[in-house]
Every structure is written in structure tokens, then in C-alpha cells.
């Protein structure tokens, strides 16, 4: 009972924001997370999660899939400020350039060979090819990627110092948003013709 009460109490302590912005100053004050479960209702199952035990389906345009172990999938993480993902890669697969606005990321390669890279706010690119047992770290908010450069499948686990780190996946953000970013913005940004933008959007069903 003491452990359950302690952990349940800690789960009501605020950590990083779970939303991108908050403008409704007239709204009722709430904790930074989901409502906490009463200590008397806490069970052992609240502290265990098997969602990362199965290989993800990599049959998609990127040849990679992320299985999230954040608060949305594992409620026991609520406001504790940690989470972990599983990322599976088919041969040649890529976890495309993206960022996590609310978290630093660290990761370890379980299987395979991957090129991991990120770009700083000073526009400097850092990268390295790493293999099983080797780790990497991506500072909070920086654009980064992982690409399988080995001959077989690859697997990594990534950890975050947020229970809901968020993910801004650049190709989807730019070319598959709802509603769509105007083509005029994208053609001027990338200095290409309208047909090029339409061709990219079509690959993402936009």
C-alpha cells in the first residue's frame, strides 16, 4: 500500500508540457497530465506494459515503424517524465527526419546497423554508423533520423525524458498536413515547380 500510494502521489507532480500551446487562460487549472488514479485502485498491472514485445509492421513507404511506449499506451507513465519507443526497420528502411519538441532522445541498437544523424540549430550535421549495443543521444527538439544501412532487419529502443515527447515528422508535416500547406509556400521554400510539390504530396495521399 505504501508503494502504491507513493507512486500514485508522484504521478500528480507536473513535468514537461503535454501540449504544444495553451491559450485559454479562463480554463480551469489542471495538472500537467491525465487525472490520477486513486491509490486504493492501483494494481500491479498499472506498472507493467508488454506493448514493445512484438515486431512492428514495416510494410509502409518508409520501411520502418515506431511502436510507442508513452503515456497514451502505458498510463502508468502519467506525469513521471519518461517513455520508451520500439523502432523496427526493414532492410533499407528509414525513420525519416523528425523532431521531438518536448524531449531529448537516447537510444540503443539491439540488432542491425544504422546511420544515425541530427542537425543542430547552427545547421551542423552530426552522424555515425552504429551497431548492436551502441548508443546515441539526440538533444531536445533537434531534427534527426535513423536509417538501416545493414543487409538485414534492424531494431532500436529509444528513451525519452517526457511521458509524451511528441513527434514532428518533417515529410508528413510539410506534405500531408490537414489542411495542406499551400503549394505556393512549398514551391518558394524548396525552389521547385508546382508539379514537384504535387508529386511529393501524392506519395503521402495528400
UniProtKB/TrEMBL annotation:
Residues binding oxalate: 85, 95, 100, 105
GO cellular component: apoplast
Binding-site positions, Mn(2+): 98, 100, 105, 144
A family per Pfam: Cupin_1
Matches recorded under InterPro entries: Cupin_1, Germin, RmlC-like_jellyroll, RmlC_Cupin_sf
Record has Repeat as a keyword: no
Matching SUPFAM superfamilies: RmlC-like cupins (SSF51182)
Main location: secreted
Matches recorded under Gene3D superfamilies: Jelly Rolls
Compartment(s) of residence: Secreted, Extracellular space, Apoplast
Single annotated GO MF: manganese ion binding
Source organism superkingdom: Eukaryota
Signal peptide: none
Residue ranges constituting the Cupin type-1 domain according to the UniProt record: 50-198
Keywords assigned by UniProt, alphabetized: Apoplast, Disulfide bond, Manganese, Metal-binding, Secreted
Annotated family: Belongs to the germin family.
Protein name (database record): Germin-like protein
Species for this entry: Davidia involucrata (Dove tree)
